[in-house]
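Hello Y.,

Per our agreement to keep a running log of every chain we model this quarter, I'm adding this entry. I've kept the format consistent with earlier entries: sequence first, then predicted structure.
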Amino acid sequence: MLHPVNYHAQLHMLSVINLLSKMSQLKLCVLGGTGKTGRHFVSQALANNHEVMTISRRPHKLAQFANNKNLLNYKADIFKPEELVEPFSKSDVVVSMMGFHTRPWPINGYVRTTNSIVRAMQMADKKRLVVLHGVLTKHESRLEPHPYGAFMNNVILRIFGPIFDDINEAEMILRIAGESIDWTAVAPGYLLSNKSGPTDKEIVAKEDAYYINEASTFMQRSDVARYMLRVVEQDLHKGGKVVAIAVP
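Predicted structure for the entry above:
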């Protein structure tokens, strides 16, 4: 049996721990949570005891988390801001893990999503936004020396150029939103799919950059999710920043 003094001390310690746990728990509204990178983000956020609200028309892709009390799915059209207001209003941070392909035309998924997110956040009176974008979206960055070399002009730009332009325009929309949206755009290089969890590799980050010369151009999706969760939890790179990330 515990000594009365120690028992009360332990009760006090437990109450403090519970309070700190509640204070550190965030309510995250995640778009694209059923995608290849989004599922890693949702998994890691739930593992860190955050409340996660996903917006998806295909919640069956998150069936593995169906019994997790901290996961809630909203069925909504991401291109209709009025349908996003309710889940946004209940969140501390909006996180977009959306990604779009080079087909079908026109390539405007990032622009359409960003317009919808910005409008819905303004309607819900929410400010903090963290989005997954990509490297080399700014036109000037494609003209500078970078680790992609000639392969960039011959292959990457021909295939992904329209996506880069779409993301660049989406970031312009975020800048125009001004102080109404406190956004961070995380920009990794080429994404590699892995079924396992995140690695323990160091992640290099550089603000106001569109690539990192001193690191690999490839990055595991789970590690991208790991860094985005760090941005959310530690409130990093605030004030409208594009942040290039890579592993050495």
